[in-house]
Design goal:
Glutaredoxin; 7 helices; alpha+beta; Glutathione S-transferase Yfyf (Class Pi), Chain A, domain 2; 2 domains; binds glutathione; single chain
Length: 209
């Protein structure tokens, strides 16, 4: 079945980059439509009604003979693209283990590492609300704990699920390789740094911007 793929994105977003990197590694053509999240462009009545009622990018639009379908959530979109590809392990436990790291990314990593990057690098600390400022220390500590766990895991394994790159690596790479923009130092995480270089060396790799 022929289908056309369009990513609704803000190019500064690591969540959007995950999908572009997955498509690039698989050689899949992917059109893009850009929004500025800082200007509320994903919160318009039209966007909420047609693209994502949750008011966020990324959203993968899949146009096929039956019409257009919209898939929000970065890791779900990566999963859709990588179905039955080498980026998803075949073996049942390995596949569940890959999902384990993708859930970890969404619960322990992204809400801390990505949020602090957004606040510090794009919004600016001076422009944060009192409530946001009050969350910085806790988010920094939680982000450090996530990075520490990753570093310890990567001391024993080239990629998150063994010897080959999978969607778990793509999900975790997106915000880890720019963690410094959120105030996280990677210098004392040598196994993460070596893994970043391995991901960047993958055939078809594309940088974030
Ligand atoms: N869990 C979602 C997170 C999506 C998300 O938080 N998107 C942000 C940009 S990375 C966004 O659209 N923010 C704009 C807004 O909330 O108005 C995913 O992984 O795709």
């Amino acid at each position: 079945m022929a289908e056309a793929l369009t990513l609704h994105e803000d190019p500064r977003s690591g969540n959007c980059y995950k999908i572009k990197l997955t498509a690039a590694l698989l050689g899949l053509p992917l059109a893009t439509r850009a929004y500025d999240i800082m200007q509320g462009e994903t919160r318009t009545p039209e966007f909420l009604a047609t693209v994502n009622a949750n008011g966020r990018i990324p959203v993968l639009q899949i146009d096929a003979s039956e019409g257009a379908r919209f898939l929000p959530e970065s890791n779900a979109a990566c999963w859709y693209l990588a179905h039955r590809s080498a980026l998803v392990p075949q073996e049942r436990f390995a596949q569940a283990d890959m999902l384990r790291w993708m859930f970890f990314e969404q619960y322990n990593h992204e809400p801390n590492v990505a949020t602090l990057r957004f606040w510090r690098h794009f919004v600016g600390e001076a422009n944060l609300s009192e409530q946001q400022r009050g969350q910085i220390t806790a988010k920094h500590l939680a982000g450090c704990a996530a990075l520490d766990l990753m570093n310890r895991h990567l001391a024993q394994s080239a990629f998150f699920c063994g010897d080959t790159l999978s969607l778990a690596d793509i999900a975790l790479f997106a915000y880890t390789h720019v963690a410094d923009e959120g105030g996280f130092a990677l210098g004392d995480h040598p196994h993460i740094l070596a893994w970043i270089a391995r991901v960047q060396a993958a055939p078809g790799f594309v940088p974030m911007q």
